[in-house]
């Protein structure tokens, strides 16, 4: 540390304005020259007297400053981004950081500021901006004057993505030195997404454009094999020309987030395989859902079904009510009938598979639908379709749909008895955990009660899950998966009472909407779910299950770290847990039965586009500021020496640290050089001598 020092300097503090003083000086000089030219007696003494008077008016003072020298600042920027996790770069950077810090701390009049940079893991899907080393440096120096900076030393692989364009500002803040991890002339293969949609329509083709590039390869190959996986399952493979765009056509299979993984075969001897894969998240949006509603006979609840389905803009409804069975013969001429013939063949043979959901509302066998068409519906369900039966009294009679081929898929078998007494529908224990019914009372007050229904068809649940019950805990609402499809049975036709507000009513619209959307495979209504969301620097995991047993979720991050997290049970069939995030990328969640993916940060960050250690981005800025570049693996740390600001700042074997010699004034003293008394005595002396000289 430098000691404090005293520095003195001569200054003037004139009693008159400087302009007047200059005018007096000119007049005095003119008089003196004139007297000397005329050889007048006492010219020299008069000139000395005038000079003394001018000096008195100029008031010379001696200034003495007590100066305390300030320490210079050396900034160390440590790159800890994802590209530094390749190979031994992280270990090399850490060892160099420790050694560098020890060396600089041993230099006098030098203070060390350190800052590390990491990739953020809190952003949602999107493109990250890469390594912001200069932003980190700016933050470290925001309260420090640029003329106190001795140098900035970056420990990095050279992949810096915010190199400033304003080079003049950087020159004032000292040299920029770079210590590079990695090795020169590395080779790597990179798969890059050129164009990808963020959303698409389910079951409609989408186009993706990718590009494969090989860097640092002396003998490049022409093509490489590309594999496409969707939600973890392999879908296709193709050959891609190296360096050329490849267009892929993929199809979304479900609503919500669809994750695509596109990977390329590795290159022999390449730096890393981390950037051999690209991840794309596309939000699936369903087009118009085709719903067929067949009402067996008019009743009070028929309009309720129609209004609920028509109010959903994503639903396209086809509704038929069978008012006139074929066997009815009342003598009315055909030409006078205004009813539309039921297009049986079109609906149940030609266009059956176009529908996403078929609803039978109080339907009974009346000879309209032959068994062959009902068998088509049964097959349609098993192959992935959806069927909802809202039963009426006829379900307990021989005219029941259960007496048709639909019995293969219907989970409730009628006993022949119909309850006709008032009861309040209740949610079963399973129903309290199922997403379709678990939240029906979540927003209601504890004192709120649902209104009563007055009819229920007794049935025996042969399969599925009973979510709601009526009198004597008999099944009221049954949901079942049949083959690849889904079936729901509502064993009452009195849900309309809730819609009319009878005895306070109930959540009729919400219940019927949830049943319909579960049948159409809405992801949010799946009874078994495993998903996670990013909240700050944590991953919040949520598991929905009908099983109340405690679950443990295994989370795998892109770096290969595996964490087991025990979830805590919450209400409504939900188990939750929180896990700190350590890296960005695609995380995999598994609980033994389910597997899901969650994107943390950008799926294809700029940080991994070109991961080779390189001087391309930093060479120019190092040259402009006088800094040096050195490879740690082959050259090690350089020597460090203090340099004058205007001198050379680096060489092949040393880096310079500017000696700025900044100081602050801690003391101040001001002393007049010519006191008024001394000046007066001198002036009188000159007058007396001049008088004596002229009197001789």
TrEMBL record:
Q: Superkingdom of this entry's organism?
A: Bacteria
Q: Where are the transmembrane segments?
A: 20-37, 44-63, 673-692
**Protein name as catalogued:** Glutamine amidotransferase domain-containing protein
**Kinase: is it a keyword of this entry?**
no
InterPro entries per the record? Class_I_gatase-like (IPR029062)
User: Which UniProt key words apply to this protein?
Assistant: Membrane, Transmembrane, Transmembrane helix
Q: Which residues form a coiled coil?
A: none
Lineage of the native species?
A: Bacteria, Pseudomonadati, Pseudomonadota, Alphaproteobacteria, Sneathiellales
SUPFAM superfamilies in UniProt: Class I glutamine amidotransferase-like (SSF52317)
């Amino acid at each position: 540390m430098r000691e404090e020092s005293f520095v003195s300097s001569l200054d003037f503090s004139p009693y008159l304005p400087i302009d007047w003083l200059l005018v007096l000086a000119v007049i005095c000089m003119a008089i003196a020259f004139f007297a000397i030219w005329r050889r007048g007696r006492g010219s020299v003494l008069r000139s000395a007297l005038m000079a003394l008077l001018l000096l008195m008016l100029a008031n010379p003072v001696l200034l003495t400053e007590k100066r305390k020298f300030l320490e210079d600042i050396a900034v160390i920027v440590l790159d800890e981004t994802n590209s530094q996790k390749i190979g031994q770069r992280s270990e090399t950077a850490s060892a160099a950081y420790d050694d560098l810090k020890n060396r600089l701390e041993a230099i006098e009049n030098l203070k060390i500021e350190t800052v590390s940079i990491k990739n953020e893991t809190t952003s949602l899907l999107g493109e990250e901006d890469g390594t912001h080393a200069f932003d980190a440096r700016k933050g470290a120096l925001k309260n420090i004057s640029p003329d106190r900076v001795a140098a900035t030393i970056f420990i990095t692989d050279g992949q810096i993505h915010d190199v400033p364009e304003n080079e003049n500002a950087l020159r004032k803040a000292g040299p920029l030195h770079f210590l590079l991890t990695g090795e020169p002339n590395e080779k790597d293969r990179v798969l890059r997404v050129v164009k990808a949609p963020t959303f698409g329509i389910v079951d409609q083709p989408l186009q993706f454009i990718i590009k494969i590039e090989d860097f640092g390869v002396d003998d490049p190959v022409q093509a490489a094999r590309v594999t496409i996986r969707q939600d973890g399952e392999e879908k296709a493979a193709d050959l891609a020309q190296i360096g050329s765009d490849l267009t892929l056509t993929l199809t979304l299979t479900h609503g919500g987030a669809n994750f695509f993984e596109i990977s390329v075969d590795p290159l022999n001897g390449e730096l890393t395989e981390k950037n051999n894969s690209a991840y794309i998240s596309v939000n699936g949006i369903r087009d118009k859902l085709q719903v067929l509603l067949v009402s067996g006979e008019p009743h009070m609840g028929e309009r309720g079904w129609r209004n609920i389905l028509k109010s959903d803009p994503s639903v396209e409804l086809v509704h038929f009510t069978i008012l006139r069975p074929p066997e009815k013969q009342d003598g009315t001429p055909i030409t006078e009938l205004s009813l539309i013939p039921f297009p049986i063949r079109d609906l149940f043979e030609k266009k059956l598979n176009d529908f996403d959901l078929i609803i039978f509302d109080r339907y009974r066998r009346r000879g309209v639908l032959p068994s062959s068409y009902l068998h088509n519906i049964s097959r349609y369900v098993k192959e992935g379709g959806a069927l909802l039966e809202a039963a009426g009294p006829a379900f307990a009679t021989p005219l029941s749909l259960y007496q048709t081929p639909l019995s293969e898929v219907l989970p409730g078998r009628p006993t022949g008895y119909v309850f006709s007494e008032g009861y309040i529908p209740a949610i079963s224990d399973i129903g309290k955990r199922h997403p379709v019914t678990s939240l029906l009372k979540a927003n209601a007050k504890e004192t709120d009660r649902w209104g009563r229904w007055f009819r229920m068809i007794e049935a025996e649940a042969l399969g599925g899950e009973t979510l709601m019950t009526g009198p004597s805990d008999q099944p009221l609402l049954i949901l079942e998966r049949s083959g690849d499809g889904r079936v729901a049975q509502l064993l009452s036709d009195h849900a309309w009472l809730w819609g009319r507000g009878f005895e306070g009513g109930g959540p009729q619209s919400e219940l019927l909407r949830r049943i319909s959307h579960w049948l159409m495979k809405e992801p949010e209504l799946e009874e078994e779910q495993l998903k996670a969301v990013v909240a700050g620097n944590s991953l919040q995991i949520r598991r929905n299950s009908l099983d109340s047993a405690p679950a443990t979720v295994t989370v795998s991050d892109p770096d290969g770290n595996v964490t087991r997290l025990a979830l805590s049970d919450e209400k409504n069939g939900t188990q939750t847990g929180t896990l700190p995030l350590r890296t960005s990328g695609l995380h995999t969640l598994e609980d033994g039965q389910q597997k899901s993916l969650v994107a943390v940060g950008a799926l294809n960050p700029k940080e991994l586009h070109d991961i080779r250690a390189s001087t391309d981005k930093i060479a120019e800025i190092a040259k402009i500021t006088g800094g040096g570049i050195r490879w740690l693996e082959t050259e090690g740390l350089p020597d460090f020496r203090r340099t004058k600001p205007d001198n050379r700042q680096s060489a092949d074997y040393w880096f310079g640290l500017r000696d700025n010699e900044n100081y602050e004034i801690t003391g101040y003293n001001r002393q007049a050089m010519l006191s008024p008394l001394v000046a007066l005595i001198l002036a009188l002396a000159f007058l007396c001598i001049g008088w004596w000289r002229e009197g001789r």
